[in-house]
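Hypothesis: this fold can be encoded by more than one sequence.
Test: take the structure tokens below, design a sequence, compare later.
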């Protein structure tokens, strides 16, 4: 018993500290098992069936003919009609001597219990039959009526329905409690918090700060939060106050939840974890009740941390929904959360850690200082961060000698930490599928291709004419991107169908924080290079440029309406970062301005298309050579473009030098930096 009681601490979301056994109370006494109720009911049923009527001798059923025969032969001593339903036949000495010679008789010469039983149909017909059978009998037997009350049977008739209703009620309530998340299997606990508790004795979380890579700035902030709780006097002795809330904001897959897991693994304080959707319920007031219960549990275990993942499920700005009013359940939950975080009562020793990728829709009252004092932006990793993330996820992999983390970091621009983890896992699966003993460089490249473009469909039927159009389309993209200064240089082009696309191209985008008008415009030219190649070579265009047209249309619209990069519209931006325009009935510009926007967007796109046609017309021979090689080999690389068109006049050597220098500087800084402790952060 001692071994069982030490396991499973903290696994119950409502009462994390209770023992793991479901049949024991917190004080060690055994709980009452509901199965005993079923056993008792079954025993009562058996007892009533066997002992409800008392101990009687076996009776034989008699038919009408034999009963008439016994009456005519004067072998019947007594007939009792019980409750006007059953007739009990008692034989006299003459009949007993013939049929029951060993029977014991009383003073009247009959047995104590009936010898035969007869089920009557109609009382009148039964009396008439007995009377007719004894017409010639000197001493006829008369029917005597007897009324008997079966108390056990009556009680049992009432007991069975009540017992069935009780069992049905218990099973129904238990099922509702489990399906509605009421906690402890009861609907009466539906307002309890569903947060899962992790503490220093919990083995469910083994993630530490060493497992978080590429987020150095965010780690410093998070490590300081942990230090607030470990050494509060270090900060309070100067009069400072511990922050009440920290909000992690960033794109999906950047590691917000991973940072929270590392806090749970590093902090020696209780850690409550739950999702924003855990507060949402169809019943009015349940969400607010769960918020109150969560903070009551947290205050009882202070100092502690509460982590709410995807807080936008309940933190959306109030009053923005046109369907539900101010009494919306979600808004009531948010109001209670605002009160608990910074209301009239004190909330010392409890830090709220939350994560979302939609901070723009959160309520302003939730984001103000005093509730979420700090907002940590967890952004996509740069080339240095991607290398560190690859190192973390490659720890348990058997790698070949040709695997270069720097090369993989360069080949995965824009990848989040979750994407890189997926790349490593896909590379391992591909190597295992091929029967390899190690994961080599090509496996990682194939994994990147599969994640970006989808699964190869080599068996897809494509006619030679379609294949030629696809080849020139992809060659047009490659040619224009190679010949433009600010377009992204090509890495690989393939006409093997992948996913929903008939061809795919991989580029190495430059990692920059701001983009100029010329850079955006040249990217649009490269995007329209595929359709322009079809026009130059075949004199007609196809439907294969749908995604390209969608991309350039959005880019042109952003240039005109968001970034103020158009001369006619001027330095105006109609972008609303607060999201209030989504609920507005009118546009923030006039109809004349809308017409001008449409004209300018169309002008920019058509001008980019004409420039793409001009570039491909001037390099028609190189375009044809590149497309023919693509038709022949199905895959071409940047080296093929360099051989056909020569090196890019602008080159990438300086960019590579800068990237390598930054990479080496970051590595040397990491080597010289002391251990990542909150005191040195």
């Amino acid at each position: 018993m001692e071994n069982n009681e030490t396991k499973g601490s903290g696994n119950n979301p409502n009462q994390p500290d209770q023992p793991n056994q479901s049949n024991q109370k917190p004080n060690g006494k055994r709980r009452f098992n509901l199965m005993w109720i079923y056993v008792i009911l079954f025993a009562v049923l058996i007892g009533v069936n066997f002992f409800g009527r008392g101990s009687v001798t076996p009776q034989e059923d008699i038919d009408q003919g034999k009963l008439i025969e016994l009456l005519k032969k004067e072998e019947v001593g007594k007939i009792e009609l019980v409750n006007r339903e059953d007739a009990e036949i008692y034989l006299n000495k003459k009949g007993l001597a013939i049929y029951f010679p060993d029977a014991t008789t009383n003073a009247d010469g009959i047995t104590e219990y009936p010898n035969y039983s007869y089920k009557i149909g109609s009382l009148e017909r039964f009396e008439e039959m007995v009377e007719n059978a004894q017409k010639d009998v000197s001493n006829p037997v008369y029917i005597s009526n007897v009324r008997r009350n079966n108390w056990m049977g009556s009680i049992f008739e009432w007991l069975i329905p009540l017992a069935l209703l009780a069992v049905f009620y218990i099973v129904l309530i238990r099922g509702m409690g489990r399906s509605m998340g009421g906690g402890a299997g009861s609907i009466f606990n539906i307002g309890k918090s569903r947060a899962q508790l992790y503490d220093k004795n919990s083995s469910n979380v083994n993630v530490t700060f060493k497992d978080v890579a590429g987020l150095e700035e965010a780690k410093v902030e998070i490590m300081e939060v942990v230090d607030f709780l470990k050494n509060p006097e270090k900060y309070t002795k100067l009069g400072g106050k511990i922050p009440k809330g920290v909000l992690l904001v960033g794109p999906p897959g950047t590691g917000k939840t991973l940072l929270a897991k590392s806090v749970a693994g590093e902090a020696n304080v209780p850690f409550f974890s739950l999702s924003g959707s855990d507060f949402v319920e169809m019943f009015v007031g349940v969400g607010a009740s769960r918020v109150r219960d969560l903070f009551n549990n947290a205050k009882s275990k202070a100092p502690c941390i509460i982590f709410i993942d995807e807080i936008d499920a309940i933190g959306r700005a109030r009053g923005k929904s046109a369907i539900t009013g101010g009494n919306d359940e979600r808004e009531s939950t948010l109001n209670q959360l605002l009160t608990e975080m910074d209301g009239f009562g004190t909330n010392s020793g409890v830090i709220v850690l939350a994560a979302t990728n939609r901070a723009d829709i959160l309520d302003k009252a939730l984001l103000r200082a005093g509730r979420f004092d700090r907002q940590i932006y967890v952004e996509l990793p740069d080339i240095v961060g991607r290398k560190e993330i690859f190192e973390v996820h490659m720890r348990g992999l058997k790698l070949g000698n040709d695997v270069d983390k720097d090369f993989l970091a360069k080949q995965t621009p824009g990848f989040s930490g979750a994407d890189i983890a997926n790349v490593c896992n896909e590379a391992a699966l591909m190597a295992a599928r091929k029967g390899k003993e190690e994961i080599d460089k090509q496996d990682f490249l194939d994994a990147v291709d599969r994640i970006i473009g989808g699964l190869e469909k080599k068996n897809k039927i494509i006619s030679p004419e379609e294949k030629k159009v696809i080849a020139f389309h992809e060659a047009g993209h490659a040619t224009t991107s190679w010949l433009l200064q600010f377009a992204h240089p090509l890495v690989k082009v393939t006409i093997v169908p992948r996913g929903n696309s008939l061809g795919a191209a991989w580029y190495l985008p430059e990692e920059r924080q701001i983009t100029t008008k010329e850079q955006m415009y040249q990217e649009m030219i490269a995007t329209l290079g595929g359709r322009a190649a079809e026009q130059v070579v075949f004199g007609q265009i196809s439907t294969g440029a749908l995604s390209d047209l969608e991309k350039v249309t959005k880019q042109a619209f952003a240039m005109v309406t968001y970034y103020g990069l158009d001369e006619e519209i001027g330095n105006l931006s109609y972008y609303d970062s607060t999201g209030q325009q989504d609920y507005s009935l009118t546009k923030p510009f006039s109809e004349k301005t809308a017409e001008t926007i449409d004209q300018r967007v169309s002008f920019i796109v058509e001008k980019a298309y004409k420039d793409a046609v001009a570039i491909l017309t001037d390099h028609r021979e190189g375009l044809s050579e590149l497309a023919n090689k693509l038709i022949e080999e199905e895959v071409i690389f940047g080296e093929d473009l360099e051989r056909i068109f020569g090196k890019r006049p602008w080159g990438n050597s300086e960019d590579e030098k800068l990237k390598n220098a930054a990479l080496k500087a970051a590595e040397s800084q990491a080597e010289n930096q002391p251990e990542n402790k909150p005191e040195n952060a």
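The chain has a mean pLDDT of 78. The chain has 25 helices and 14 strands.
Hypothesis status: open.
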